[in-house]
Specification:
The chain has 225 residues and is α/β, with parallel strands linked by helices. The protein contains seven helices and five strands. It has a five-stranded parallel sheet with strand order 3-2-1-4-5, with helices on both faces. Helix 1 links the parallel strand 1 and strand 2.
């Protein structure tokens, strides 16, 4: 009899949140199958980070799936629209990619069903979420129902669990929890609009939220050291 861990699929962007989420999945006894979406975002830094994180966490599998959302546009992350640098916008910012988490979770669900996994992890959080509607708890709850209704596994009674362990955590707690687990956060990436030399811009919403989290946690950001 084997005691192999159950498979879980984790949506891995290479950022702080998804890195900690992947570590939590492993901590809870799951084998890590990491899915990264190459949606033709403005830079490749987060894809490189996702690869480094998957290697660091010894993922069982790491799939980088190409999906060219720049063909649709509509976001500063996929279109010729300036990334805002004036401070965190409390509304839905132009860095919102239309239906991104809905699309990504659907792909994560498809892979999970294909490999027989029934657990999906996503690193959304509803406190420092910068206005994105597809990070809200209501969305995660709704998608859980969609997964049950839209799949063979769901209709046969072996549905899916969508884990969002960081859902109610702020960035400071995320940094603290990651640091306590001794995760190498220098491998993670947050910036939406890196400089020509490949450094974080320090001014976009994501950079500001990251900096705020490290400062509140009283931890030095290793990516800046």
């Amino acid at each position: 009899m084997t005691n192999d861990p159950k498979d879980a699929v984790v949506l891995l962007s290479g950022g702080l949140d998804s890195t900690l989420t992947a570590a939590i999945a492993i901590e809870n006894g799951f084998a890590l199958n990491a899915l990264t979406i190459d949606y033709n975002q403005r830079h490749r830094c987060e894809l490189q980070a996702a690869h480094a994180v998957a290697k660091m966490l010894k993922a069982k599998q790491h799939v980088t799936l190409p999906l060219d959302l720049s063909r649709f546009g509509g976001s500063a992350l996929t279109d010729d629209i300036d990334v805002p640098k004036g401070g965190v916008d409390k509304g839905i910012p132009v860095t919102y990619v239309p239906a991104r988490n809905l699309v990504f979770l659907s792909l994560t669900l498809a892979w999970a069903e294909a490999i027989g996994a029934r657990d999906i992890f996503i690193g959304v959080n509803a406190l420092d979420y910068s206005g994105y509607p597809d990070c809200r708890p209501e969305f995660i709850a709704s998608f859980t129902q969609t997964a049950r209704l839209a799949t063979r596994a769901g209709t046969s009674g072996t549905g899916f669990t969508i884990h969002a362990p960081l859902q109610h955590w702020d960035k400071a707690r995320i940094v603290k929890e990651a640091t306590e687990r001794q995760l190498d956060l220098s491998r993670t990436w947050s910036c939406y609009d890196p400089t020509a030399s490949g450094q974080p811009c320090g001014l976009c919403d994501s950079c500001r939220l990251r900096a705020k989290g490290f400062a509140a946690a009283d931890v030095a950001d290793p990516i800046l050291i």
